[in-house]
Design goal:
Layout: H1 6-12, H2 14-25, H3 29-48, E1 55-59, H4 64-76, E2 87-99, E3 105-113, H5 116-126, E4 139-143, H6 144-150, E5 165-170, E6 177-180, E7 188-192, H7 200-216, E8 220-223, H8 225-267, H9 270-278, H10 283-320, H11 332-358
Parallel strand pairs: 3-6, 4-5
Antiparallel strand pairs: 1-7, 1-8, 2-3, 2-7, 4-6
Helix pairs in contact: 1-10, 2-8, 2-10, 3-8, 3-11, 8-11, 10-11
């Protein structure tokens, strides 16, 4: 091991280096914070991701103008759809409540089909429901997560839907609910393909049709997975600003704390640096040594922080799953926030050390 390498300092100052590494590992608190803040949006993403496999149309409100536009669209609907996307299923659409990890009350669509045949047609044409799931009149199937979140078990009646009984749960991602119930009327249309052949082009055609209809009939509500996700992302976008404001606060607090620790360690090494100077090492070489030590300690801190966060997420998912709440996957927001905090703190600490080297403080007695 070379005397001037970063590992030499680590070997001779194990306890001090360990404390610095642990302090720097606190930066990854931004990761779990990002997972927490992004959780409501992430649940919607896993529910709605994938190809657009249907288009739902409904009135936007109950005004006479909205109803008139909806009726007018029904007569012209074929002009907005390709020939291979023309099968119409009439259904009712309700909202099902669920709570996010942050305590927000969110909703997901619950589609209620008029007959078992309509449900089977939906299942065949979209592939969104497992093949072994079959429903009769008055029966409901939910994703396991939504059932857990609502606290309803197989064989029980739905809390807010009289006449509907949960007969099965599906191991599918997100919050989903489907029922069969013969009602006197319907309030929505679902357009599906004439076969189960899904392509990227078909998914785009569903999205394009929704945008055209919404443009020509602003009082008609349209839904595909992509349009629904865009609307959800827009509504939750304020959470991103809150998170990055929190990241800045965390960076300031940790930067002051960690830099104070590095400054204290630095002051104890002035004689060491004076010896390097006397041996002929340049200011840049001394700075490069300091920078390599900071970067290497940060690397160890990232590994430790990642292990702690992974363990914490696994434990939380085990505890929270029974209530239908969990972290489904690594959040991009959490990664971006952590990387941003790492860069701001580490680069600033290296820069402050560079200023000291340039002022020749390393040669002071």
């Amino acid at each position: 091991m070379r005397p001037f390498s970063a590992f030499t300092y680590f070997r001779n100052n194990r306890l001090r280096v360990l404390v610095l590494i642990l302090m720097m590992s606190f930066i990854t608190v931004c990761f779990i914070g990002g997972m927490y803040v992004d959780n409501p949006g992430e649940i919607f993403r896993i529910t709605l991701e994938g190809e657009n496999r249907f288009l739902v149309l409904d009135t936007r409100g109950t005004s006479n103008d909205s109803i008139d536009q909806y009726r007018e669209l029904q007569g012209k609907l074929s002009s907005y759809l390709p020939e291979d996307i023309s099968t119409i299923i009439y259904l009712n659409r309700y909202y099902e409540d669920f709570d996010s990890i942050m305590g927000f009350n969110c909703t997901t669509d619950h589609y209620i089909f008029q007959s078992a045949e309509d449900f089977e047609l939906f299942k065949t044409r979209t592939g969104l429901v497992p093949e072994d799931v079959h429903l009769k009149n008055g029966e409901t199937v939910m994703s396991e997560q939504l059932a857990n979140n609502q606290g309803v078990h197989v064989g029980e009646n739905l809390p807010k839907r009289k006449g509907l009984t949960l007969v099965a749960t599906m191991k599918v991602p997100g919050m989903r609910a489907y029922s069969v119930y013969d009602m006197s009327g319907t309030n929505a249309m679902m357009i599906v393909g004439n076969d189960a052949n899904f392509t990227v082009e078909r998914s785009r055609e569903f999205a394009d049709a929704a945008k055209k209809i919404e443009s020509d009939y602003p009082l008609v509500w349209t839904q595909t997975y992509s349009t629904d996700l865009e609307e959800t992302e827009f509504e939750l976008s304020f959470m991103y600003y809150i998170f990055f404001a929190i990241v800045i606060v965390v960076v300031i607090v940790l930067l002051v704390t960690i830099n104070a620790a590095f400054t204290a360690a630095y002051d104890k090494r002035k004689h060491e640096f004076a010896i390097y100077k006397a041996l002929g090492f340049t200011k840049f070489q001394i700075f490069r040594k300091i920078a390599s030590e900071v970067l290497l300690m940060n690397l160890f801190a990232i590994v430790i922080g990642a292990c702690i966060n992974a363990g914490l997420v696994l434990v939380l998912n085990q505890v929270l799953w029974s209530s239908g709440q969990y972290f489904p996957r690594v959040s991009k927001l959490a990664l971006i926030g952590t990387v941003l905090a790492e860069m701001l703190i580490v680069v600033t600490i290296i820069f402050l050390n560079w200023k000291k080297v340039r002022k020749c403080e390393v040669t002071e007695d």
